[in-house]
Design the sequence.
């Protein structure tokens, strides 16, 4: 194992700046390293230090993470408004790259776990969606693809209402136009274009975002797939369509899943996937298998509309509350449809999604038509709804 052995009160030192960090607790364990809660002896406050495994590929990947978060923080979000974790320091301690971040709270997976088998209230989901979208707008402006959006990589930053969340873990992120890896995204949140080995862009993050929002509502992953084949099958069944022919025509792995019959594509029986990345395929699979499972994943291959409309209402809801929530659920489905669009060209951008009635609280009268993307700079004021009377407190 290439992890550094950390114990309470051991000290991580930045030899250049002489800053010292005293390990107090473990916050998490990821593929790339461990994250420890540390006491910064200089500033006298707690921070989170990600201690990367002593492995050349992970070290290089860690430096990319530092560069990307640093750029996002300084150049694109100097006032810390757009829900991206703050990087504070980085150094090498005993051959391990250490990255210091602001200390955050629990991740969204831990937040929904105790609620199982139910998810969060629509009110909270709307609030979280808006915050994640703001981070996604900034990332898109910076030309950054996160490549690993999932509930474990979204953290609550304060436990007081209204809840503030932040996107973390840019350890798999890359620049748009420099997408060198083909095996990315955690399986449940993997987009159809990545799965099929097609070229991709920032739209893959919007797919993962859609999966996360559905999971926050359902309390369990929307596509709890056990293999890539299972994932594709679930996508097709749940969304009622298969990826567009244009995607299937150009994707490298199409023939692992589909047969070309006449002028159309039909899904084949289970295929074998090949892949490469910073992580080997085995490492990736091991990581997938370590993802904590919540309860029994009962639903399987159900249409998205039915899944959400028929999801049990909370027992303590009045008739009026149920009536209101049924309207919001229609808005949620319409919102998810634009994110879980199988054609990446037609999938909504973060800015387009920010204008959706599910976010703005406006009444959805017909399927939402996103505004065309002409503006370069985000104008959050137009769509930031601090107090949204339309939402009430429907649990
Ligand atoms: P992955 O396997 O997802 O690639 P990783 O090795 O890249 O993980 P991170 O996702 O950065 O590591 O961190 C692992 C876990 O540590 C997170 O899911 C989170 O629970 C915890 N964590 C990370 N950063 C912080 C922070 N700033 N404050 C509090 N907890 C954190
Ligand atoms: Mg992570
Ligand atoms: Mg990571």
Sequence:
């Amino acid at each position: 194992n290439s992890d550094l052995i950390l114990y309470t009160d051991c000290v991580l030192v930045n030899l250049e700046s002489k800053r010292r960090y005293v390990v107090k607790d473990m916050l998490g364990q990821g593929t790339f390293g461990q994250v420890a809660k540390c006491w910064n002896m200089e500033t006298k406050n707690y921070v989170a230090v990600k201690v990367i495994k002593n492995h050349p590929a992970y070290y290089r990947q860690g430096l990319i993470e530092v560069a990307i978060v640093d750029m996002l923080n300084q150049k694109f979000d100097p006032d810390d408004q757009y829900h991206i974790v703050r990087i504070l320091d980085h150094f090498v301690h005993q051959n391990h790259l250490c990255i210091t971040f602001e200390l955050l709270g629990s991740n969204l997976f831990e937040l929904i776990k105790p609620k199982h088998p139910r998810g969060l209230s629509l009110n909270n989901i709307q609030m979280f969606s808006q915050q994640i979208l703001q981070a996604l707008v900034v990332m898109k402006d910076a030309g950054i693809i996160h490549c690993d959006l999932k509930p474990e990589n979204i953290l609550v930053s304060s436990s007081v209402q209204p809840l503030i969340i932040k996107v973390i873990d840019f350890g798999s992120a890359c620049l748009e136009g420099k997408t060198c890896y083909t095996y990315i995204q955690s399986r449940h949140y993997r987009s159809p274009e990545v799965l099929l080995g097609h070229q991709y862009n920032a739209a893959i993050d919007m797919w993962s975002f859609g999966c996360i929002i559905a999971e926050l509502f359902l309390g369990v992953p929307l596509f709890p797939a056990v293999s890539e084949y299972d994932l594709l099958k679930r996508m097709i069944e749940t969304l009622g369509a298969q990826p567009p022919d244009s995607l299937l025509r150009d994707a490298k792995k199409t023939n692992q899943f589909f047969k070309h019959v006449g002028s159309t594509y039909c899904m084949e029986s289970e295929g074998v996937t090949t892949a490469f990345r910073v992580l080997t395929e085995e490492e990736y699979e091991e990581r997938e298998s370590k993802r904590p499972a919540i309860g029994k994943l009962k639903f399987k291959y159900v249409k998205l509309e039915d899944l959400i409309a028929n999801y049990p209402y909370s027992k303590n809801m009045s008739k009026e509350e149920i009536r209101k929530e049924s309207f919001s659920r229609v808005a949620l489905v319409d919102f998810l449809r634009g994110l879980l669009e199988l054609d990446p060209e037609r999938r909504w951008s973060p800015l387009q999604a920010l204008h959706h009635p599910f976010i703005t609280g406006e009444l959805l009268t017909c399927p939402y038509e996103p505004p065309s993307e002409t503006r370069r700079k985000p104008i959050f004021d137009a769509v930031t709804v601090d107090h949204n009377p339309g939402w009430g407190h429907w649990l």
Q: What stands out?
A: The pocket of magnesium ion (ligand 2) is lined by residues 30, 152-153, 169 (CB under 6 Å). Residues 270-278, 294-300, 375-395 have pLDDT under 50 and may be disordered. The chain is about 35% helix and 15% strand.
